[in-house]
Amino acid sequence: MGSFLDWFLPPGASTFAADIDRIYYAVLIITGIAFVIVEAGLVWFAIKYRARPGRKATYTHGSMRAEMIWTAIPAVSVVALGIWSGTVWNNIKARDSIPEGALEYAVMVSQFEWMFTYAGRDGEIGTADDFTLRNQLHVPVGRAVVLRLQSEDVIHSLFIPAFRVKQDIVPGMHMAVWFEATQTGRFEIACAELCGNGHTTMGAMTTVHSTAEFDEWVASRPATTALR
Question: What pairing do the DSSP bridges indicate for beta strands 144-151 and 103-110?
Fold first, then answer.
C-alpha cells in the first residue's frame, strides 16, 4: 500500500512543471472544498429534515439569493481557471512557443519502441553525422529541446511525467513538443496511449546531462545508426 505522498505529482524537472502543478493543485483544492461543502450539506439536510412522527412536510420555493451564489461562484472559478490554464497552455503548446535555438531531435515511434535521431556534432538534423538510438533520449540541462515526432503505425503518446510533457503522435502528421530540463538525472518515458499488445513494454529513458557532459557524449558518438 502506497504512502500519502503517492497522491501528489512526482517532483518536477522542467521549466514549466511548476506552472502545471499550480493549476493541478488549484483545481484539486477547489473541487475538494466543493465536495466537502456539498456532502456536508447533504448530510445536514438529511438529518435536519428527516421524517419524524407528527411532523408534516411543507413546500418551500427556495432562495433566489442562494441559487445565485452557488451558480456565480462555480462560474467565476471555472472562467478564472480557464484563463489561467489557457495562458500556460499557450506558453507550452502554441506553435510560436518553441524557443529559438532549441536543440532538435527527430523521433520515429512504432510498435513498440522509440527511435531518437540526434543532430550530431554539427547541431543539424538531416546531415551525415546524425545518429539514432533506440529508447534512449539524452539532453543537456538548461537548454530548450524540441522533439519532432512521427508515428510509423498507430496513435502513440509521448509522456515524461517529471517534465509534465505529454503529446499524442498521430500517423501521417508531424507533431512537436518541447521542454527544458532543470536538473540532471534519469527520467522515465512512457507511451500514454494504448497502442497494442506490447504497449506496456514501450518504455524508454531520458538522461539529462550537464552541458559539458552532453557535448562530450555527442562528440563520442559515431555518425551512424546505433540501435542500443
Answer: parallel
Spatial neighbors of 221 by CB under 8 A, at least 6 apart, are 118, 120, 131
Nearest 5°: the CA angle 79, 81, 82 is: 60
3-class DSSP state of 46:
helix
Rounded distance between C-alpha atoms, residue 8 and residue 4, angstroms: 8
Q: Is residue 224 scored above 70 in pLDDT? A: no
3-state class (DSSP) for residue 169: strand
Query: What is the C-alpha separation between 98 and 146, in angstroms, rounded?
Result: 7
CB of 14 closer than 8 Å to CB of 180: yes
14 residue type, one letter: S
Q: What is the pLDDT of residues 58-67, one digit of tens each?
A: 787 778 888 8
Distance from chain centroid for Cα 87:
15
